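Throughout our pipeline, every protein is held as a single compact record rather than as scattered files. Such a record has a labelled line for the sequence and another for the backbone structure tokens. The remainder of this section carries one protein's record, kept here as part of the documentation:
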Amino acid sequence: MTEHGSPVPGIPVPGTSVPGTPVPDAQAPALDIERLLVVTAGSAFATGMPYWTDWLRLSYPGLEIKLVLTRTAQRFVTRQALAGRLHRRGEVLLDEWPEDEATARHVELAEWAQGVVVYPATFHFTARLALGLADSPALLACHCTRAPVAVAPALPPGGLESAAFQAHWAALATRPNIVLAPPHPGLSLTTGRADAWVPPLLPEVIGMLEHRRAELEAGAPDREPPATPAEFAADLARA
């Protein structure tokens, strides 16, 4: 049994996941890339990123990692808390265009990344991505990269049932290089109830990213049409 009480290593029991909870026995799936871009948005689950940065570095010693923190993510984790953990195998950036930068950061990120993980993805970041907004380097890089992009949302109570979120999810599902990681039921830090939605553990998201990367390399399969809102909610309830 894991410390979550789950009989399957790395899989949380619905309703027990809380931000920053370590999962020492999380298994590392195959990952056939050398450069990974990780975008962290402003969810309380960003507090777990120091742990997951250590996990990435130890699980994939040769992997170069660039971490991008959105403005709201800095409420939950600092650049300094992550930078030292990369041991010179990457860097931590803020999701903004520096005034004194001579190059286009979004172009560099889009071309550098062989895979992108948005973890956690907030409701707001997911909406901006789905709507095609490009008001930050990370968003524009996600739109322009040819690499697979895994999006792992963290949602507040009522977020999953929101018609807006379901429409955004359906829109993203049509993009060949986007892979969506369905959230799991989890505890809300505000209500204290299991009525929030939390991202899967990072190893699960990495596995989904690698699966999509292999599909794209072999020739992207036909995509199924987006589910109706009712089918969407039913599918996630079964996940």
User: Anything to note?
Assistant: The helical segments are 49-59, 79-83, 105-112, 123-131, 137-144, 163-173, 202-218, 229-238.
